[in-house]
Amino acid sequence: MPSPQCLQFDIDARSRTCNARTGRVTTRHGSFDTPAFMPVGTQGTVKGLLPWDIAKSGAQIILGNTYHLMLRPGSELIARRGGLHPFIGWPGPILTDSGGYQAYSLSDTNKIDEDGVTFKSGIDGSMVRLTPERAIEVQNELGADIIMAFDDCPPSVDPKTLNETRRRMTNARGGRNIVDHDARLEEALERTTRWLERCARAHGRPNEQSLFGIVQGGTDLERRTRSAKEITAIDLPGYAIGGVAVGEGPDEIKRVVEHTAPLLPEDKPRYLMGVGYERDILAAVRAGVDMFDCVLPTRNGRNANAFTRTGQIRLRNAQYAEDDGPIDPACGCPVCSPAANGWATINERPFGRAYLRHLFQAGEMLGGVLVSLHNVWHFQALLLDIRRAIRDDGWSALAAAWPVLVERSAPTGTA
Amino acid sequence: MPSPQCLQFDIDARSRTCNARTGRVTTRHGSFDTPAFMPVGTQGTVKGLLPWDIAKSGAQIILGNTYHLMLRPGSELIARRGGLHPFIGWPGPILTDSGGYQAYSLSDTNKIDEDGVTFKSGIDGSMVRLTPERAIEVQNELGADIIMAFDDCPPSVDPKTLNETRRRMTNARGGRNIVDHDARLEEALERTTRWLERCARAHGRPNEQSLFGIVQGGTDLERRTRSAKEITAIDLPGYAIGGVAVGEGPDEIKRVVEHTAPLLPEDKPRYLMGVGYERDILAAVRAGVDMFDCVLPTRNGRNANAFTRTGQIRLRNAQYAEDDGPIDPACGCPVCSPAANGWATINERPFGRAYLRHLFQAGEMLGGVLVSLHNVWHFQALLLDIRRAIRDDGWSALAAAWPVLVERSAPTGTA
Question: The complex's ipTM?
Answer without folding.
Answer: 0.94
